[in-house]
Amino acid sequence: MAKIAVMGHGVVGSGVVEITLVNGEQLKKRSGETIEVKRILDLRDFPGLSYSNLFTKDFQDIVNDEEISVVCEMMGGVSPAYEFTKACLEKGKSVVTSNKELVAQKGAELLQIAKQNNVNYFFEASVGGGIPIIRPLHQCLAANKIEEITGILNGTTNFILSKMLDDNMPFEEALALAQQKGYAEKDPTADIEGDDACRKICILAALAYGNHIYPKDVHKEGISKLTLADVRYARSWDGEIKLIGRAAPVENGKVTIMVGPMLVPQDNMLSSVDGVFNAVTVKGNMVDKVTFVGRGAGKSPTASAVVADVVDAVKSHGTSISQTWIDNGESMVADYLDDVVAYYMRVKTADVSAAKAYVEQRLPEVEFLDYDGSAEDEIAFVTQPMVARESHTLEQDLEQNGIQPVSKLRILQ
Amino acid sequence: MAKIAVMGHGVVGSGVVEITLVNGEQLKKRSGETIEVKRILDLRDFPGLSYSNLFTKDFQDIVNDEEISVVCEMMGGVSPAYEFTKACLEKGKSVVTSNKELVAQKGAELLQIAKQNNVNYFFEASVGGGIPIIRPLHQCLAANKIEEITGILNGTTNFILSKMLDDNMPFEEALALAQQKGYAEKDPTADIEGDDACRKICILAALAYGNHIYPKDVHKEGISKLTLADVRYARSWDGEIKLIGRAAPVENGKVTIMVGPMLVPQDNMLSSVDGVFNAVTVKGNMVDKVTFVGRGAGKSPTASAVVADVVDAVKSHGTSISQTWIDNGESMVADYLDDVVAYYMRVKTADVSAAKAYVEQRLPEVEFLDYDGSAEDEIAFVTQPMVARESHTLEQDLEQNGIQPVSKLRILQ
After folding, report:
1. Confidence class of residue A355 from pLDDT cuts 50, 70 and 90?
2. Fewer beta carbons under 10 A from the terminal one: N or C of chain B?
3. With a cut of 50, which residues of chain B have pLDDT below it?
4. pLDDT tens across A44-85, in order?
5. Which UniProt keywords apply (chains A, B) (predicted)?
6. CATH second-level architecture of A2-129+300-315?
7. pLDDT value of residue A207
8. Where are the domains of chain A?
């Protein structure tokens, strides 16, 4: 019999409790033990549940209970989740979480504490919801050098972009629909400005490259400025616009890492990942590209990833098996302006033919895009790869020639 | 220091040796030990290699060497791979394999022997080449009941189908190209008749449902009778034809399982998996659908999966952690004629309008398909779901009305 605690009885936390009740036999078969929720921490009251008797408002009831061997931290945010997690690990309890904010901020430290206490800190659910990605990445890692990680890591923005593309829905309307369906928060900033995706790519990159990467060091761009025009130009180019998190090793042990909307060509698997689905492509030097696709959020998918971690924590009790990374105090993030990248650009101009002539002269191998019904005072084009820094010079040059840049998106190679 | 042996120095076996040489530092970091190939078993001579001194023609040099803790069986076929694997497990050595034929035939028995001897029998590379699928399936399994497994499990046939669809290449020509590129064997029967895919879906189903499934009990259909007409009709329906292996639990503890070409709608992730890529979709009752995509064959991808298993075998030496299934002597395979399935059919007829009228009367909710340049003496249509057995009655009825069935494909729901 393994006794566990759940801290935070919100959407995912309650899902975890439900799975232990519904799939209990399954869990016993897989972990070798009956898994029982002994305590649930929440400041709110939940009367009328079949398990209302398990609730406590006092963290001490969990951390000081020696019977509890695994704690699921489903609280979200950094504090007090951080202090509670640390205390549980130091008391020899494994901790399982879906809290990407905490892992992205304090992962290295908590993993070290887990190791020192011979327990585990698992966070499969923090990236990609129900998609197994952390363990498969380990597996790829075992025999491969990871050359690139690219992912659609936020379901809300992918839902919005799909609605824009497939239903010609303007951004604001698609966002409102996402909120109505419960995909987006009332304050959707973390989703649409890329913070959420940024935390996840930081976690994946830390795992792959061994050093903690702080989200604040990572360049990110959101999707709030995208218009239907961009989406249609993208289609005319046989591509889709996706919010992509990307990390890849560059010279001197640095990693180029960023989050932003990118033009994804249709022959890239990520282009066909629509709606609230997430996907991660890992490119290894031996295995080439492998892609994992599934529901990146939602109660049951995320809770199922948490419970799978619980099973692993129960099976490995007393042995620290989780992959770790360190925080050596130095940022391994390369300057994103040194990236070499091709761009899609949309510009406004009073004189289209003059603007085209200038662009052609400035960018000899440019490819112009067009679609039925495009605005008469704008042009759009795709460049050859250039150092990102040069794209700013290009924008200045365009402006000096009476051409106003409106959109600039990276192209995913 | 962990010493391993490789049995069979073919494409994958030599790849395994190479990875241990090229990514040695990586492997040490991941497994905690230096991994060294001590012996290689092959009846052929390989002079002039940097490691030619490691070869032996005598299996006893491996099985009786107490220093060797992990053996990679890369020989293929059932015998003598079976006898050698058994002997190694009984001597307390873990065995890692990419041999799907052996796992599909003798998996249950070898897993039991591994368990009894406190060692592991790992076979990640036997399904999906380099794609991590066996372990992610465990992970999904931990918290989910698996409601369905569907997969594109053979890269050769997927390459052929992609060529037919994208380049209008007839089947024979696409097969010849696959052979020329080294994807298909000289005798391509196992690929194009579905035997290879069948072994893999049997392995996945055994893992998911706990009982051994013999390939001989599974209904399978190949792709050799497909024509360009079928592929174009499929496109007109917004679908693609893929060779699909599928398993799903039905009543009475049985599993419906089969391999055959199916019409896959474009909103199914599997429809966009092209060329030599493989993909597996697992549907769990909590996580919904997760899909794993990557190179299903090839030297480096497959060898990298083998080496990842070696790392796991080294790390878990002395503990049996592999998932097992049993062979209870009873087939859990349900009669495929009891499946409920919608069909695509193409038929030849002397009188198209009479045939259409008959089909419409016989199948009230039928959907007719057409494409530019379709043959004048044939029609194609998509049916509503029916019990598979009834599709044979339908074919007889058609024939009795002067309508000759030419193609019949299942539609993947």
Report:
1. very high
2. N
3. none
4. 999 999 999 999 999 999 999 999 999 999 999 999 999 999
5. Amino-acid biosynthesis, Methionine biosynthesis, NADP, Oxidoreductase, Threonine biosynthesis
6. 3-Layer(aba) Sandwich (3.40)
7. 93
8. 2-129+300-315, 134-295, 340-411
Nearest CA in chain A to B282: A294
d(CA A64, CA A53): 18
For the range B107-112, what are the long-range contacts, defined as Cβ-Cβ under 8 Å and sequence gap of 24 or more?
B107/B203, B107/B206, B107/B212, B107/B325, B108/B206, B108/B211, B108/B212, B108/B324, B108/B325, B108/B326, B108/B327, B109/B327, B110/B82, B110/B85, B110/B86, B111/B322, B111/B323, B111/B324, B111/B325, B112/B324, B112/B326
Reported confidence tier of residue A376, pLDDT bands at 50, 70, 90: very high
A-chain residue closest to B20, CA distance: A143
Statement: B134-294 belongs to CATH 3.30.360.10? yes
Is A140 in Cβ contact with B132 (below 8 Å)?
yes
Half-sphere exposure of B227 (CA within 13 A, CB side): 11
CA atoms within 13 A on the CB side of B342: 15
Q: What does the alpha-carbon distance between residue A343 and residue A52 come to, in Å, rounded to a whole number? A: 55
Asked if A300 and B288 come within 8 Å (Cβ–Cβ), the reply is: yes
Q: Do B136 and A289 touch (CB under 8 A)?
A: no
Q: Does A139 have pLDDT greater than 90?
A: no
Give pLDDT, residue B249: 97
Smallest CA–CA distance, residue A61 to chain B, in Å, is 27
ipTM of the complex: 0.91
Catalogue the active-site residues of A.
Answer: 200
For A132, the closest of B19, B139, B304 (CB atoms) is B139
Which among A274, A286, A304 is the nearest to B304, CB-wise? A286
Interface test with B, best of A27, A139, A288 (most B CBs within 10 A): A139
Strand-pair partners of B322: none
| CATH pick for A340-411 out of 3.40.50.300, 3.90.1300.10, 3.40.50.1000, 3.30.70.2040 | 3.30.70.2040
Do the two domains A2-129+300-315 and A134-295 of this chain adopt the same fold?
no
Q: Which residues of A touch B142 (CB under 8 A)?
A: 26-27, 30-31, 307-308, 311-312
Least confident of A141-145, A229-233, B186-190, B317-321: B317-321
Place of tokens 């189908």: B161
Q: Tokens standing for A150?
A: 């690219």
Per-residue confidence at A394, pLDDT binned at 50, 70, 90?
A: very high
**Min Cα–Cα distance to chain A from B11, Å:** 14
How far apart, in whole angstroms, are the C-alpha atoms of residue A343 and residue A409? Answer: 6
A157: nearest Cα among A203, A235, A224 = A224
Question: What does the pLDDT read at residue B321?
Answer: 77
Average pLDDT over residues A247-274: 95
Helix axes B24-31, B299-315, angle to 10 degrees: 30
Q: Into which CATH architecture does domain A134-295 fall? A: 2-Layer Sandwich (3.30)
> What is the per-residue pLDDT across A146-187, written as a single tens digit (0 to 9) for each?
999 999 999 999 999 999 988 999 999 999 999 998 887 788
For residue B181, the model assigns a pLDDT of 86
Residues in chain B within 8 Å Cβ distance of A209: none
Q: Which residue of A has its CA nearest to B288?
A: A301
How confident is the model over A365-379, as a mean pLDDT? 95
